[in-house]
Design brief:
The chain starts with a strand and ends with a helix. The protein is elongated and about 55 Å long. The strands form two sheets. The protein has a six-stranded antiparallel beta barrel with strand order 1-2-5-4-3-6. A six-stranded mixed beta sheet has the order 10-9-8-7-12-11. The protein has four helices and twelve strands; from the N terminus they run βββββαβααββββββα. Strand 9 and strand 10 form a beta hairpin. The chain has 166 residues and is mainly beta. The chain folds into two domains: 90 residues, RimM (Elongation Factor Tu (Ef-tu), domain 3, Beta Barrel); 68 residues, SH3 type barrels.
Amino acid sequence: MQKLLEIGKIVRTHGIKGAVKVISYLDGVNFSIFKHIFIGEKLLEGNIEHVMKLNNDAFSIKIDIINSIDEAENYRNKSIYIDRNEYKEFKDKVYLNDLIGKPVLDENHEKIGELIDFDDYGASVILQIKTGIVTYSLPFVEDIITYDEDLDAFLTTKQKFKDLRV
């Protein structure tokens, strides 16, 4: 399990004092519970000073290390992470990010490939599964593919994998 959890993405500036608009990746979670965050690939540390909900999945947040609209512009399209150990509600949950690199097995528990990425389109999640040098997309639907915690692997059948992969 990864220590850091990606919780959202800065999409634009929001106001002249350095607030940013963030799209949340967490359903039904208000960003006001978060205090200490990490930003971007360099994992710059910051503290959230103020949160204002904009709509269902968007928030305006003021981060202590961003103090102007010009500074805020530098953080556009940067991901925001939290240390899940700081928040008990996320400490023991398993997310798809945690499962990247896990094997995909067929009905005989033979390895078909491994999960290398996923795309969440809201209505559905598409898994990116690498088999040798080829990567296939497969919808993450219970009738097609599941994650087995005991095996620590994804399970599908050879036939479903062949029929439904793109």
